[in-house]
Amino acid sequence: MDYWSICLLFISLFGTILRTGGVELSFELPDNAKQCFYQDIEKNATALFEFQVVTGGQYDVDVILEAPNKEIIYKQIKTQFDSHQFTASMTGAYKACFSNEFSTFSHKLVYMDFRVGDQSSLGEHVTVMTQMESSAQTVHKNLNSILDYQTHHRLREAQGRKRAEDLNTRVLLWSVMETITILVISVGQVYILRTFFTERKR
Known about the structure:
The chain crosses the membrane at residues 171-193. This protein has 202 residues and is of the alpha+beta class. The protein has helices at residues 3-19, 131-201, and strands at residues 21-29, 34-41, 46-55, 61-66, 72-79, 81-87, 92-99, 108-116.
């Protein structure tokens, strides 16, 4: 591979990094609360919006995605997880709002991923790609798939851990209640038996 091919490969990689962007985070959504996040998107850019309720309540949340002109692009009521891909119709700040206003006592942990730009390829080539360039593109796609799988499994692990902790708390409370009940019944039985014997002595 000559010098110019290597330069073209690095320019393609750098261009892909510049063309793609977004927000990926997990946040806590209190009960009776609403939180909004903003992402600047250029016109005709492709965007992918994903979310998942990791913990809390019935694992559901209200979601609204709005364009800069207040047009509702996407809306879901009491949904646990979903994804929505769209092409921006105008340049500006797109707003994604999560609402837990229907819940009065359970706060939730929500994961959100807002990707902007084409992340599927390393850029278009006018000439035929060399073997090294095609290998780099394959590695790029595989790494993106690995990141998606890791994120998915981390969320599943967090859900499982939270459910296990909740189950442990419930089992502990149930055990304490059973212990108290057994003690109360034991004391009651002893008291009743004592009253029987004291009445006979009289």
